[in-house]
């Protein structure tokens, strides 16, 4: 495992715990950002650290390239493309796509496909994480939900419910941004009911009196 990158310390963290007790939108890799306009700001991460969800440490080199990619320079080279398309052009490997589907199940009208997320990120979409459906990821077939098989097994039911709920809302006409927020609320409720999850602002939140440093140490793997 890489111990340092640039001026940062690499910290493996328990992402499942973070998504249960701090930030439902914590993904695979994050660092502190002072940008007030940034979505889902990670102000709880120490400025000298990069946090990586422990199950994804094997992808650290690739994830760091994505995190520190200079999109502004790339926009000059690909002026007609949006950010996600630029990432695909720069980082996705060409050639034969390896088999990435692990297993397939059914839930209602949806086919649930467990995929090798590492392969999906390497060959199809560097920004695919945890799960997705066709109304957000155009490469996913209609009425399929993809789940990254590297995700913590205890977390998969919540990821699945989030994706199905979000998909249904978008089919009813909601834009992704709003549908995602509704799905986050639904997911928080399920985590609260099933495993006792709690978040800042909830009644009896267990870490209210923690300093930022003490809170950060709570989530180290």
Helix proportion of residues, in percent?
25-40%
**Number of E strands:** 8
Report the sheet with the most strands, covering strand number, pairing sense and barrel closure: 4 strands, mixed
The amount of beta strand, in percent, is 15-25%
- Backbone CA Rg: 18 Å
Our count of helices gives 8
Overview of this structure, please?
The protein starts with a strand and ends with a helix. It has helices spanning 15-21, 60-67, 71-77, 83-91, 117-123, 156-171, 176-195, 212-218, and strands spanning 4-5, 8-13, 29-31, 49-53, 101-107, 110-115, 131-133, 144-148. It is of the alpha/beta class and 221 residues long. Helix 6 packs antiparallel against helix 7. The chain has 2 domains: 4-82 and 200-218, no CATH class; 101-195, Arc Repressor Mutant, subunit A.
Briefly say what this structure is.
With about 220 residues, the protein is of the alpha/beta class.
Question: Can you lay out the helices and strands and say which pair or pack?
Answer:
Layout (H helix, E strand, L loop, with lengths): L3 E2 L2 E6 L1 H7 L7 E3 L17 E5 L6 H8 L3 H7 L5 H9 L9 E7 L2 E6 L1 H7 L7 E3 L10 E5 L7 H16 L4 H20 L16 H7 L3
Parallel strand pairs: 2-4, 6-8
Antiparallel strand pairs: 1-2, 3-4, 5-6, 7-8
Helix pairs in contact: 6-7
Provide keyphrases for this structure.
221 residues; globular; 37% helix; alpha/beta; 2 domains
């Amino acid at each position: 495992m890489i111990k340092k990158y640039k001026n940062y310390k690499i910290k493996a963290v328990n992402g499942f715990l973070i998504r249960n007790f701090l930030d439902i939108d914590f993904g695979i890799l994050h660092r502190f950002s002072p940008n007030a306009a940034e979505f889902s700001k990670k102000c709880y991460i120490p400025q000298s650290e990069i946090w990586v969800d422990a199950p994804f440490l094997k992808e650290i080199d690739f994830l760091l390239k994505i995190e520190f990619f200079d999109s502004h320079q790339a926009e000059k080279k690909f002026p007609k493309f949006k950010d996600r398309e630029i990432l695909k052009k720069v980082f996705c490997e060409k050639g034969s796509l390896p088999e990435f589907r692990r297993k397939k199940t059914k839930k209602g009208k949806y086919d649930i496909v467990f995929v090798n997320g590492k392969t999906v990120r390497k060959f199809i979409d560097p920004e695919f994480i945890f799960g997705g459906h066709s109304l957000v990821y155009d490469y996913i077939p209609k009425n399929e939900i993809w789940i990254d098989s590297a995700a913590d097994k205890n977390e998969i039911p919540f990821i699945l419910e989030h994706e199905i709920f979000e998909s249904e809302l978008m089919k009813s006409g909601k834009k992704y941004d709003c549908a995602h927020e509704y799905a986050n609320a639904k997911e928080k409720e399920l985590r609260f009911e099933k495993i006792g999850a709690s978040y800042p602002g909830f009644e009896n939140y267990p870490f209210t009196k923690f300093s930022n440093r003490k809170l950060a140490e709570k989530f180290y793997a």
